[in-house]
Amino acid sequence: MAKKKQAKAKEPITIRFKKLANGNQSIYLDCYVDGKRTYEFLKLYLVPETDAQAKAKNKNALQAATALKSQRIMDIANGKAGLQKANRSKVLFSDYMKAYRGIKQAKGRSEEHAKQIDNLCNHLHAYGIDKVELSDVDKKICLGFIQYLNNTDLSQGTRYKYFSMLISALNYAVKEGYIPFNPTNQIKNEDRIKRAESHREFLTVDELKSMMATPCKNEAVKNAYLFSCFCGLRISDVRALKWGNIYMDAGQLRIRIIVKKTNRELVLPISDEAKAFMPEREEKQDDEQVFNLPTLPHANIVLKKWAADAGVNKHLSFHTSRHTFATMGLTAGADLYTVSKLLGHTDVSTTQIYAKIIDKKKDEAVNKIGALFK
Question: Are 194 and 235 a contacting pair, CB within 8 Å?
Fold first, then answer.
């Protein structure tokens, strides 16, 4: 006799939509717990998908709703939000990681960051951590995961990134009271995965001048990229930049933003060179965006074609504008600490990568002089 298929357990929370009179759809959570149904309206909306911008807006709204759903499910797993913090660690580590991903996305982290957490979760699953409770994640398990990563075909940089993300996830668990301490803090430095020697692609001054002189089929991409070359902002912050973030202070144009990646405030002076690539404000309101950019993949496609037309034979992405700003600043004589603050780095050691690039260029220059006399 054939066995009956086991019914799949339904999730206690479902994302639903309510059509509004203006054609939009309001996103809400349908929560069914212990025989009781409640609804939570999220103040998130889907709009008619008339263009790429509307599609992107809907995608972000759905991602935020999914993040909130994950958080609510974890609250239920923690004891229907009624347990003391000391008991929160009983949640499965795999469930905690899913919720952590959602929380980070709800706080504005990029879709790419969410994908990286997904990749980390896939490797944690392959390592066999699915049935382990958060409270049982200890030094031995973390060392085992390091060994697992080192036995994969992943690059040094990717292994370092995944281990760093695990550290961040456990730090957040400590901060929120899920666990008393981060077990990775007990791992000796020599046993940790080391950061790979980093390569930072950037434009030389001559290459930058060539890019500036070369037409680009998307002027918004060109202006935003060159603007970033002269101020160092990431594309996520350039995309989010609004006219209300820009102000004049004692004759100096400045930007005040909350950085997407770190969620920290950053105040930047804007040079005349950077200002030259900003569009005219005209009658734009404070809450309107300065640059109207396509998606990052499309922007990078435009950038590569533009670079090729300019005769720049380098593997460029939008982020190379930030590298260009850092290397130009250090080459011009700015000190490491100042450049670090302009980039919004939380640790000056991150900025030292650019200092190594400049030192290498100095070595090459000296060696070229010596070669003239051989």
Answer: no
